[in-house]
Amino acid sequence: MKTNKKAPLIFIGFMGTGKTTLGEYIASNDGLNYIDLDEYIVSQEQRSIPEIFDKIGETGFRNLEFLYLQQCIEQYDVISTGGGIVEGPDAFNLLKSRHNVIWLDCDLNIVYERIKNDSNRPNANNKSFFELKSLYSSRVSRYNEIAFTKLNSNQPLRELYHIIQEMVLCE
Ligand code: S3P
């Protein structure tokens, strides 16, 4: 798959929709540089995400997300972002201005089983299905506004890979 550092492939979407798994798959198949933005933040800050939320709050975390998103766009070919990246206006506007942003989405029941009570995800930990559904609903229009396409991630990685390969290669 041909991407370049000026237009990395960027995955957005709610927690637990498979952004990291697919990003890693594509990058390893094609020998591309891959980064998970959450992992990048943790390694730069030398603190876990729950620690960052505790220390500087969600607003502080969103500022870091924007700061490090800018760095990652300059350095990597494939980037998976955190599900809440659309919450920060700066990151939202930056992503909106980019090409090759793909929204991964899938059935919320599947997502809930994956992320419920995940202590490493402050916005999912101790949340009911309905609380998560409400968070998801509040973000949908923003994912939609940013992405050039939406893909259902509840299908084999190979299928997703081929769909993306055709879209990106045919540009
Ligand atoms: C968040 C999603 C997480 C992470 C942080 C906040 C959110 O990323 O950035 O816990 O608010 O949706 P994943 O989508 O990779 O779980």
Please summarize what this structure is.
The chain is an alpha/beta fold. 56% of the residues lie in helices and 11% in strands. Keywords: Amino-acid biosynthesis, Aromatic amino acid biosynthesis, ATP-binding, Cytoplasm, Kinase, Magnesium, Metal-binding, Nucleotide-binding, Transferase.
Task: Give an overview in words.
With 171 residues, the chain is α/β, with parallel strands linked by helices. 56% of the residues lie in helices and 11% in strands. It has a five-stranded parallel sheet with strand order 2-3-1-4-5, sandwiched between helices. Shikimate-3-phosphate binds at residues 15, 38, 49, 82-84, 121-123. One of its GO terms (molecular function) is kinase activity. Mg(2+) binds at residue 20. Keywords: Amino-acid biosynthesis, Aromatic amino acid biosynthesis, ATP-binding, Cytoplasm, Kinase, Magnesium, Metal-binding, Nucleotide-binding, Transferase. Substrate binds at residues 38, 62, 83, 139.
